[in-house]
Amino acid sequence: MTSKDLKDLLGTVAAEGRDTVDLDEQHLVPRIRSRRRRQRIIVAAAGLGTAAVIAAAAVAIVPNLGSDEAPVASGLAANGVAIGECDGAVSGSPRADQPLKLAATGTLVPSATNPDFGKIKVDVTNTTGAPVTLMTGTTADITVVQQGRVVATPAAVRDSGVPVVLAPGETKSIESTVSLRRCGEAAAQTKQRLEPGGYEVYATQRFSPTDGGQEIEAQGGPWSVALN
Amino acid sequence: MADWESTFNELVAVRGGALRSYAYLLTGDTAAAGDLVQEALLRVFGRLRLGADVQQLDGYVRRVILNLYVDDRRRAKLWNDTRHLLVEPDVHGDDDHVVTANAVRQALSDLSPKQRACVVLRYYEDLSVLEIADQLGCAEGTVKRHLADARTRLAAQLGVTEESVQ
Q: Which residue on chain A is closest to B18 by alpha carbon?
């Protein structure tokens, strides 16, 4: 038997297959249709997924895209208000959803013993519907601002823990120390103080719940004060 | 009717018989051949990007049939390697060389998937060794070896003479 004979025999088998193999096109077409539909969904989903990834990447890469929050400068920057370092800008305003609200009351009173410092009363109010038990410092960090620029950074004071218990809506006052020495290297060398005039102050104070909960950073300001 | 459906109908009408024969030669079983052609058509026409050239689509479908056949047989190799322990193989008398389609099918079934594919592509589809190598994704030397081995085994059962496969 030659290759030609083998080809002929294969042809015989092939002819048998042509007659006996059932293709069942009627059932095949709906299956193809279904697969194509599925493919289209997959392609569409993949497109959406890619778009989402690109959008997420853009948000991650471009600073503050998709956020109304002001850029955090440094130093006392926190949620809501961004307070720059000395001579830096202050932007934003305190968040409205803070559990503790700070408010400066009264006037800025220069110290009788040390003219580099003053005192201001800051009220802290529990805005939640539940009593809170917190630990905090003896003073809030007070930043003095003039024409939108930081002119005096918070005073460096020896601090200690102070317990604060506030019922819902209750307010307590904390007398805070304010640095009246103008910040900046040149001003520090000459021990230059703030000139009498109008200023704005911002307060930031951290409270730690005694039950081990997350630390609360309360912010308040700006409050206009006059330095005589 | 969608564009792909008219192309599909045309392909089945024009090339359906040849595709069925091709699959049947590879599998030697009507049901398996039907499944093979259906799966190949499903995979080719299931793709969203599809040309309208029936000749080209016929080539795609054949390629898928071949790949599916070789892959399926590779998976079934373990069973094929051990089935002789369970089934008594048919005995072919050396004195009876009356070759029938049944005998060809039986002889082909004793070949490995790639040997069988090489035989079908070489002697039925009239492809060159180079074209077979391209279809199976292997070297020309490998195709020659498969063909030589297949011819040796077929010669023992069908009385095929040893010839050059070039």
A: A18
Q: Is the peptide bond preceding residue A115 cis, with omega within 30 degrees of 0? A: no
Q: Which letter, b or e, does each residue of A30-59 get, where b requires 16 or more Cβ atoms within 10 Å of its Cβ?
A: ebbeebbeeeeeeeeeeeeeeeeeeeeeee
* B84 and B96 share one domain: no
Structure tokens at B163: 């010839």
Question: Which residue segment(s) compose the domain that B144 sits in?
Answer: 92-166
> Which of A2, A14, A24 shows the shortest C-beta gap to B21?
A14
Does pTM surpass 0.80? no
Residues B3 and B83 in one domain: yes
Residues B10 and B65 in one domain: yes
CATH number for position B82: 1.10.1740
Whose CA is closest to B119, among A22, A17, A18, A13?
Answer: A13
CB contact under 8 A, B12 and A23: yes
- The answer to whether residue A29 neighbours chain B at the CB level (below 8 Å) is yes
B162–A contact, CB cutoff 8 A: no
The last residue of one of the domains, among B89, B117, B142, is B89
- For each of chain A's 228 residues, which pLDDT tens digit applies? 677 777 888 888 888 888 888 888 888 888 888 888 888 888 888 888 888 888 777 777 665 555 554 444 444 444 578 888 888 888 888 877 788 888 887 778 888 888 888 889 889 999 888 888 888 888 888 999 998 889 998 887 777 778 888 999 999 888 888 988 888 877 777 778 888 888 899 998 888 888 777 788 888 888 888 887
Q: How many CB pairs under 8 A join A and B?
A: 111
* B12 neighbourhood in chain A, CB within 8 Å: 23, 25
Q: What is the ipTM of this complex?
A: 0.71
Q: Report CB contact under 8 Å: B105, A13.
A: yes
Domain count, chain B: 2
Residue A13 and residue B25: Cβ atoms within 8 Å? yes
Asked if B85 and B102 sit in the same domain, the reply is no
B82 and B161 both lie in a single domain: no
Based on the fold, state whether residues B99 and B72 are members of the same structural domain.
Answer: no
Asked which of B41, B71, B89 is the last residue of a domain, the reply is B89
CB atoms within 10 A of CB B101: 16
Is the separation of the CB atoms in A201 and A143 below 8 Å? yes
